[in-house]
Amino acid sequence: MKINQQIKIKQNQSIVMTPQLQQAIKLLQLTNIELAEYVENAKLENPFIKEDLNIKKIATKDKKTFDVVDNAKQNEDPLKVNSDLEMNNSFDTHISEKTFEQNKNTIKNNFESKSTSLSEVIENTVSNKISLKEYLTNQIRLSFEKKDQSFAISLIDYLHPSGWLVHPVEEIAEELNRPVNYINEIIKNLQSLEPIGIFARSLSECLKIQLQEKGILNNEYHILIDNLTLITKGKIKTLIKMCEIENDKIIHMLNIIKTLNPKPAENYNNEPISISEPDIIVTKTNKGWKIDLNKSTLPTIKLDEDYITEISNLNLGEDDNNFTTNKIGEAKWLQKAVDQRNKTILKVSSVILQKQMGFFKHGFSHMKPLILKDVADAIGMHESTVSRVTNSKLILTEWGLFSLKEFFSASIPSSEESDKHAASAVREALKKLISSEVSNKPLSDEKIADVLSDQGIDVARRTVAKYRDMLNIPSSAERKRRSKFNKLLSAG
Q1: pLDDT on residue 470
Q2: Residue at a domain's end among 263, 286, 309
């Protein structure tokens, strides 16, 4: 009888979220104004950090500026023109990894929620009056699996101020390079968050979610909500017949509906962040286009070298020595992480400028299709990194102030096989058509689709209707009624 012994070795790879990496991810998502606040707080907690808001030194010493040559004049990659800004996708961690291990209790992990339950998170967020994004993010981190959290948080940026998700799911799927079924599943889970009705894709869905939460959603309510337009047309009897209920009951149901909130996010619209200050500035020069970080809001971090030297010359005890070592390590790491954040933002912005040159020259009508993967591939980084960079960042252009997210758009087929249109450009074309229409003869969705087709944009009537709703433009019938009403007022 033989006994065989075997040793099997299995190699696994896993990502360890060190405090340093967590901090780097956090900084990447912050706007310049948020970063300045973060640095100020770090300065108060760390005696070896001194903040310097004289940002003029950045442009000369660190060259945190991109000069992008117009591709029509010179077909060069702007990222290669500025070789001094080339960087690795990983941070040099040897400075502070040891010090973090020496005294873990002294390091605050800002990425872990102090609350242990969803109710506590909700209570805390409401009492502190934080933004809707923060409120939802805290809930997502408690309610979603880790593998889905990052993507679920990214969908917050697609919310309309009302709290509805008005973007077509197909368009989101193309922009974020994810399957439609997966996105629908994530949205379904997001609809269970507070405030109730958030992430609804229409008014009817918003109302149904709230009724479901109350436990009273039934077939009668389904019929009533799906046919609420009959009330505005004065067809109450038709509605009663469809619901197969008595008059008193439908009045009671309508009173219940009146108590619901059709815009669940309206109480959260006052974001604490100023939207008037850009994070990135694009200007046209004689040599081409220039991208720069907004020096008026961007903080820099300097180490207090004199104080470090003074402390180093003291004969400290073990505890004091560990504390100072930790703090110096944290300060050096924060300095490196902020610098890395700034370079990454400039690299992403440079690619956006290059790929959306038509917009910067001529405006929204020349916006090209662009997805996160396009930019990620150009800079050799992951899509999630690009998503974090573009999140909440504002860019100042000759055409005004825009979110970086606005430069990403799904493609719309063209009658010309060689070209495609960005969804944002299509919406702009639709807006111009309607603004120039004869008021008493408004264009129907089908007619708009035909006109766009003549312009080389293949779009279905259904898509026109979706885009029109996204722009808060009423239907042709409603526009005609408003036109008649305005004429009556002017005549009176």
Answers
A1: 74
A2: 263
399 and 279 in a single domain? The answer is yes
Confirm if 345 and 293 have CB atoms less than 8 A apart: yes
The structure tokens 């993967």 sit at 373
Q: What is the overall mean pLDDT for the chain?
A: 75
Contact criterion met (CB below 8 Å) for 168 and 184: no
Domain range for residue 363? 19-106+275-406
**Confidence band of 422 (pLDDT split at 50, 70, 90):** low
Sequence-distant (≥ 6) Cβ neighbours of residue 410 within 8 angstroms: 170, 171, 174, 175, 369, 371, 422, 423
pTM of the model: 0.51
pLDDT digits (tens, 9 = 90+) for 66-108: 555 544 444 444 333 332 333 333 333 232 333 333 333 332 3
Nearest in space to 40 (alpha carbons), one of 89, 84, 254, 30: 30
Structure confidence by residue, pLDDT tens digits, 226-249 = 887 777 666 777 878 888 877 778
Chain-centroid distance of CA 320 in Å reads: 43
57, β-bridge pairs? none
Give the pLDDT band (50/70/90) at residue 119: very low
Query: What are the distances in angstroms from CA 289 to CA 296, 297, 390?
Result: 20, 21, 20
Question: How far lies 274's CA from each of 83, 210, 278, 435, in Å?
Answer: 34, 32, 9, 31
Full 3-state SS string of 161-179: CCCCCCCCHHHHHHHHCCC
**In terms of pLDDT, which residue wins out, 45 or 233?**
45
Cβ atoms of 82 and 327 closer than 8 Å: no
448: how many CB neighbours lie within 10 A of its CB?
A: 23
Convert the pLDDT of each residue in 130-158 to its tens digit: 678 888 988 898 888 888 988 999 898 88
The answer to whether 155 touches 172, Cβ cutoff 8 Å, is yes
∠ CA 182-187-192, nearest 5°, is 135
Instruction: Look up the CATH number of the domain holding residue 445.
Output: 1.10.10.60
Q: What is the mean pLDDT of residues 292-305?
A: 86
Based on the fold, state whether residues 359 and 313 are members of the same structural domain.
yes
Pair 399, 417 in one domain: no
The number of folded domains in the chain is: 3
pLDDT at 490 (0 to 100): 62
CA distance 187 to 164: 11
